[in-house]
Amino acid sequence: MIGGWQIATIGTWASGFWSSVSGGRYLFGDPTLDEDQRLEFELGGTQRRLFFRGDFDPTLASGVDQGALQALVPADRSQRVLRPLNTTDGSNRVPQVLSDGSVRFTNVAEMVNWNQKNFYRKPGNWNADISVFKNFAITETVNVRFTADFFNAFNVPMDLAPNATSGLQDLSRQANEPRIIQFSLRFNW
């Protein structure tokens, strides 16, 4: 019973796919954050992580330093890096400050659209599946193979991708399957 066991394993590692923000918003700067800048807080009764500077109301967040959060996502929507265009007059034009200090209202079609470029990487993940097995000789012609398979053996959480508009990850859910353990017996005769 003690000797003759074998182990087999297979694993995956993914660094995360490149992605971009929602096409319904426009970038007025770089929304990306370093890992140490990503704040965690509660919003709408759910634990969230700020993955990039998105478009949401930071005053509704709790359990976080509001000064630090609003430094990344201002409460004043017109100061956010990611936001809809100023279309209060229906013209779909945004103010552009020229080098001489004057302001020109520019149509969106005349601007470079950064929204089509993938510039941030979604969360990565890794997984390992392990099998432990042993063959037992019952008689000269009959063998039994016992196998224990551990899928997602280390039960590593896989974070969901952030919302393309708000930049928030929902930490109450995971994208991975739970750990599954399967036992099997195989008879050969």
Short structural summary:
This protein is mainly beta and 189 residues long. It is built from one helix and 13 strands.
Query: Low-confidence segments, ≥5 residues, pLDDT <50?
Result: none
Q: List the strand order in the largest sheet.
A: 1-10-11-13
Q: Average the pLDDT over all residues and give the rounded result.
A: 87
Distance between the termini: 21 Å
Tell me the Rg in angstroms: 26 Å
Count of strand segments: 13
- Helical element count? 1
Order of helices and strands: EEEEEHEEEEEEEE
Helix content estimate: under 10%
Main β-sheet, in a few words? 4 strands, antiparallel
Give the CA-based shape. elongated
**Strand residue content:** 35-45%
Describe the structure.
The chain is mainly beta and 189 residues long. The protein has one domain. Helices cover 4% and strands 37% of the residues. The chain has 1 helix and 13 strands, in the order βββββαββββββββ. The chain has one helix at 66-72, and strands spanning 6-14, 18-19, 26-27, 40-43, 46-50, 82-83, 93-97, 103-107, 120-121, 125-137, 143-151, 168-170, 180-188. Strand 4 and strand 5 (46-50) form a beta hairpin. The chain is elongated and about 95 Å long. The model has no long low-confidence stretch (mean pLDDT 87).
